[in-house]
Amino acid sequence: MLAIFDKNVAKTPEALQGQQGGSVCALKDGFLPNHFSSVYPGAVTINLGSSGFIACSLEKQNPLLPRLFAVVDDMFCIFQGHIENVPFLKQQYGLTKTATEVTIVIEAYRTLRDRGPYSADQVVRDFHGKFAFMLFDCSTKNVFLAGDADGSVPLFWGTDAEGHLVVADDVETVKKGCGKSFAPFPKGCFFTSSGGLRSYEHPLNELKPVPRVDSSGEVCGVTFKVDSEAKKEGVPRVGSVQNWSQQI
């Protein structure tokens, strides 16, 4: 899977933008989308206009961690992995027996966006299993990314030369667009356009960037660790669509 989001839609953490060596303009002349299509000729590709680009392929995937793609009411979602407590989540969100993990993620996001009965960290924490997903809501221009607490599903993110966010499950694809300005997506965390990067395991703690060093000894992006000493205020639960969408 691949997603490229304009910097006006999803601003990456400043620490992730520190090493620009080798990065390119991922969207210019379709550079990174064309590369992805050459590696995965049968990929589904979606041009999001000024917001960016997403693509998903069912080729070259781990059968134990399958990819799923769905579009519901202008919400695009790519899910990889599996959720163990699917029956519970179907009941919680009022879904039919035929609902899959990717539609559960979309409905969970919709519930957050429209009603906000739970905090965003609680919603992701309720997903039990091995997973990573990326979601884009065309109506609010909101990006929603998350990975499980163990990092079981490969997911990488970075910043290209223009400051756009690049996300993929293939490290070589991310490196091609971001050079040294990339890193594995932090374990047990989620990212939203308006709320930035947060830990759903430790929602009241700040995250601190820690420089990554590659095999040649050079700094290559950063990882984010929970700062046990730095606390942050919890996300308020608000009822209106407009207010809640600003919180997630």
Automatic annotation (TrEMBL):
CDD domains: Wali7. Pfam families: DUF3700. The lineage of its organism: Eukaryota, Viridiplantae, Streptophyta, Embryophyta, Tracheophyta. This is Stem-specific protein TSJT1. SMART domains: DUF3700 (SM01172). Signal peptide: none annotated. The gene is LOC104746754. Residues 2-226 form the DUF3700 domain.
